[in-house]
Structures are given as structure tokens and as C-alpha cells.
Amino acid sequence: MKHFFSVEDIDNSEQWIAEAMQLKKSPLAHKTLGTHKTLGMLFFNPSLRTRLSTQKAALNLGMEIMIMNFSGEGWTLEFEDGIIMDQGSSEHIKEAAQVVSQYCDVLAIRSFAELKDREEDYKEKVLQGFMKYATIPVINMESATGHPLQALTDALTIVEHKTETRPRVVLTWAPHPKALPQAVANSFVAMMQKLDVDFAVTHPKGFELANQIIKDTPVFYDQDKALDQADFVYVKNWSAYQDYGKTSLDFDWTLTKEKMKITNEAFLMHCLPVRRNVVIADAVLDSQQSLVIKQALNRVYAAQLVLKKLLDKK
Length: 314
Ligand code: CP
Known about the structure:
alpha/beta, Rossmann fold, 2 domains, 13 helices, 14% strand, binds phosphoric acid mono(formamide)ester, Asp/Orn_carbamoyltranf_P-bd
């Protein structure tokens, strides 16, 4: 693995999850692996969990950390090759990526979809630009179309808590007042397709994910039908892929206590942050079935595993 860009970089999901569990048991077992190594973290968008869990992971491996909130503090970047830079952009990705590579040993980047132009977002120009010109490994801390660190965390959380050999896992769309990217849902679907689970997705008409993501995963437009006998319910809003960026506040899709009764006393999952009583009702988030806080802890071990694999190769 040269970079950790997508779920496709996880070559053996069972083994990765077992290794992450081992790191959770002994987080300081590789405390010297990252000695004199620096993790650079560039944020084009806000974060709580990704930023702190990845820092914690790096600290567990003995790394130094440098962080920059790029959107507020960096030069406006140009990504197009051969362009005459006489407009708003001050620095080309070619120089920026090579310069940062001289200061760090691993580079982690967060850059969300802008949700204006689907083709542009799905080109992943920021992550692809850094991977093209950086001379060090790059980690995706949520890009325009994927959040693989979250998906690895989610897989670890499901394997830790499952009581059935092949649990039923349902990803359900939920309402949201703001247009959110498809990144978390895209990566969760790709991750579940790699696990031995009975997986389905449910959403209202118009919120279909890209065909290249869904593949042959069953899709239900009837949320109640999808939730029947679910062992894990993963709740997440995403804006439309077809009518790109369209959102909806259809409260009929809020995950409530009544809907959880349809399930097999399912565990609740959400990547956080979550809008209470819009996406998920208080009674469900505050119930014993909620894994959201434990899930957030697992972000550390997913990030630590990825960092460890990249450092092991250096
Ligand atoms: N789940 C997640 O990525 O959280 P943050 O946006 O707070 O990093």
C-alpha cells in the first residue's frame, strides 16, 4: 500500500480488523515505530474525531505531528496542469505537495465535496493531486467521495459487537437540513461488501448512491422492510447523487425508538457528528443499543493501523 485513499486499499479486511483489535489491546506496543517521524495533517474542512483520533494514533506510535487548517491559513491552490495562474490561485499543487513532503514522513488530508459539480467532486482533485505530487504516503481523512478511515472503524465496531456469524447490517438514509456529501455512505457500502454480512441499504427515492458504489447490494425504498430483523442499523444522511447535492428534511426517515422495535434489538451506529431528533431520536442515541461513542473510540485504532502499515513499509 503506497497511499491509503479508499476502502480498496484494504487488501484483507479480516486480517486488518484482527490487527486493529490487537492495537486496541496494546496501543503502545509499537511506541518506537514512529520515533523521529512526522505526521503532517492538512484540513480543508472542520473535524473533531478525525483530527483528534488520528493525532492520538500517531502519538501512540511515537510520531511528531504538524497540523495546518489549510482552507483558512494556506494559499489558494491550483490543481490544473499547464494553466496560466493569473486568477485567484496563488500556489500550484505541484510545489505545495513536494514542499510538504520534505517536512513530513506521512501526510493526511481532509477535503470534502463542494456539492456543486458532481464530475469535479468525483475527480477527487485535492487527494489525487497530493498523491500525484507528494513523495510520501498520503492518507485520506475524508475526501470528496470517501471516508475509508471511518469505514474501517465501522467494520471493526461491527466485528467487535456481532453475536451472529453473519449479522444483518442496514444502512439507512436520514433527514438533514444541510446538503452532506456521499463520502461516508460510499465507503461504508464498499466496506460492507468486503465483510461477511447480510447487508442492505434503504433510502427514499431520489437518494440512490452511484451504481458503481452500490453494485449488487439490495436497496429498499421501504425503511421498515429494510429494518426488519436488522442486527446493526447504521444511520447517515447523504445528499442526492442524481439531482446532485439535493437534500431533504423528511422526518418520516428519522430513526426513532418505534423503528428500532422492528429490528432484532439492533445496535445503533453513526459516524458523528449527529443532529439529535432530526437524524436520530434522543431515545435511541441515549439507549443501551447505541454504539456511537464506542465507534468514535475505534477511530484511534483504525488510524493507528493505517499509520503503522505505512511506517512499516518505510
Ligand atoms: N466522523 C468524523 O469523521 O468525524 P469528524 O468530522 O468530527 O472528524
